[in-house]
Fold this protein.
Amino acid sequence: MAVVRRYGEEQRRTEERDLSDQTDGGCQKPAPEQAAVLRAWAAQERDRAEQLATFLEDVAVNGLPRPEDCTPWEELRDRRLAELGGTQ
């Protein structure tokens, strides 16, 4: 029986688990399809983190670009909205 705490109140519920689906630590293993989705998500997050780290290292070495060398956010927004509108 697991104890679930919500808004300071204790609620109890019975959980039935198939022991064959559990690892030695008592955690339920994901299905192969779920594991593949999680691995793909992890890879995407690693890529995003690497891009951010590269950007921050570039700023640390070269500083921020001058505002006149940058694309205004309104143009970026409008371009992205146009891309999204074309795919729907």
